[in-house]
């Protein structure tokens, strides 16, 4: 019998690593490894979660398709994160086409993980700092956690939980 597993799907920029903010108070993806700053509590939180959940990162990186960044830079950042944090796999969508099944808010990255790792979505979480992260989780019936970074951007639906900092995730899974 195959064991069905629980997972945590983390957005990357603004959730696990610091993101830059535009003058219009919108998040901007980092461009290279020098800009990559893991949030101080991320390693500790992911280690705790790893005891009961498989940890994934799901990230849109459309700047590659827009020729504003290189796949090499994104891969370098992702490799660094995999070395430093207890992450099973990083799913990355490089395209700029909203119809792509892998580009959030579409759920292709999650569905791939479910198939490969036998994930139970109802016992899993999607956590992120933007509306697309929340919509991605809702499409597959994962619980959703929104980290409110006060961006100039509205949610399209209500997340299951709203937090101000990553460390609050531990209270959610205990409740």
Which features characterize this protein?
175 residues; alpha/beta; 27% helix; single chain; two-stranded antiparallel ribbon; 5 helices; 6-stranded parallel sheet; 18% strand; 8 strands
What best-fitting shape do the alpha-carbon axes yield? globular
Q: Which range does the strand content fall in?
A: 15-25%
Mean pLDDT: 96
Number of helices: 5
Structural class: alpha/beta
Q: Span from first to last CA? A: 29 Å
Flag low-confidence runs: none
Largest sheet: 6 strands, parallel
Order of helices and strands: EEEHEHEHEHEEH
What report would you give on this structure?
The chain has about 180 residues and is an alpha/beta fold. The protein is built from 5 helices and 8 strands. It is globular.
Outline of the structure:
With 175 residues, this protein is α/β, with parallel strands linked by helices. It has helices at 42-50, 71-84, 108-117, 131-139, 169-174; strands spanning 7-10, 20-21, 27-28, 54-60, 89-93, 125-128, 143-147, 161-163.
Helix and strand arrangement:
Elements lengths: L6 E4 L9 E2 L5 E2 L13 H9 L3 E7 L10 H14 L4 E5 L14 H10 L7 E4 L2 H9 L3 E5 L13 E3 L5 H6 L1
């Amino acid at each position: 019998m195959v064991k069905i597993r629980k997972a945590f799907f983390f957005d990357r920029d603004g959730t696990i690593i610091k993101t830059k903010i535009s003058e219009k108070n919108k998040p901007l993806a980092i461009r290279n490894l020098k800009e990559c700053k893991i949030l101080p509590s991320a390693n500790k939180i992911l280690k705790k979660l790893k005891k009961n959940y498989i940890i994934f990162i799901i990230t849109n990186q459309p700047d590659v398709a827009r020729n504003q960044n290189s796949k090499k830079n994104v891969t370098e950042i992702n490799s660094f994160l995999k070395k430093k944090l207890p992450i099973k796999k990083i799913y990355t969508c490089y395209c700029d086409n909203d119809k792509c099944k892998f580009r959030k808010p579409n759920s292709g990255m999650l569905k791939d993980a479910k198939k490969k790792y036998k994930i139970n979505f109802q016992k899993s979480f999607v956590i992120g700092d933007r509306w697309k992260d929340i919509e991605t989780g809702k499409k597959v019936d994962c619980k959703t956690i929104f980290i409110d970074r006060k961006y100039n951007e509205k949610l399209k639906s209500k997340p299951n939980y709203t937090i101000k900092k990553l460390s609050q995730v531990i209270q959610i899974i205990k409740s």
